[in-house]
Structure formats: structure tokens, C-alpha cells
Amino acid sequence: AAPGEWAALARHYASQPKGTAAPDAAPAERLQAGQSIAERGVPNNYVPACLSCHGVDPRNPVFPKLEGQHAAYLEAQLLLFRSGTRGGTHFSHLMANAAKGLSDEDIRAASAYFASQPPAPGPDP
Of 30, 39, 49, 48, whose CA–CA distance to 106 is shortest? Predict the structure, then answer.
């Protein structure tokens, strides 16, 4: 690479707006189910609403923003929490307990819903 090309390339990508990726496509029924889990949880399985922690303002900075994240990434994290192999902060036990009550379809639905949402404004934690 010629001198300065890497810096020019870095400037180009750094100048791109956040959240320009197209949301992952999902059937409307899955998005509706995911919205229900996000807003109301799965009470019969003792799963709280995702937004009760991840959507409050002000949000605990160790609780990540979920809106606009890729569905496959969110699914993988929830599966790891459910299996008990995902750690993190001293709050990770909360997610491990919540994820135990999520079926595979619940995980797909919640992940698809959050992937379909525009990224939340403000700085990332």
C-alpha cells in the first residue's frame, strides 16, 4: 500500500454513520413474538422483560444496548447464557437465570426483534 492509503481508508470508514447495516429479515410473527418477550418477558417461565433492564433510562452501563445488534450475535449470546457458559460482569447471573426460561424459538424471536430495531442513540457502554 502506498503511504497514507491506510490512514485514508481508516478515515473513510470512521466517517460512516453508525447503524447503516440493513436489519436482519425475519417473519412478522417472529418479530411480534420477540416484541412481546422484549416488553413483557415470558412470565410463565420466570423470564423478565428484556427492556426492564436493557431499555430503562438511565440504563445501568454494564447492560448493553440490544437494538440494532445482529440477530445471530444475540442468539449466540443467549444460548451461551442459557447453557451457563457465558460470563461477563457480576450481573451475568441475571442473564443466565433469565435465559434458562427461553426456548430456542423465544431466543430467535427476541434476537430478531432487537436486530430489526434502529440502534439506540447515545454512546455505547
Answer: 30
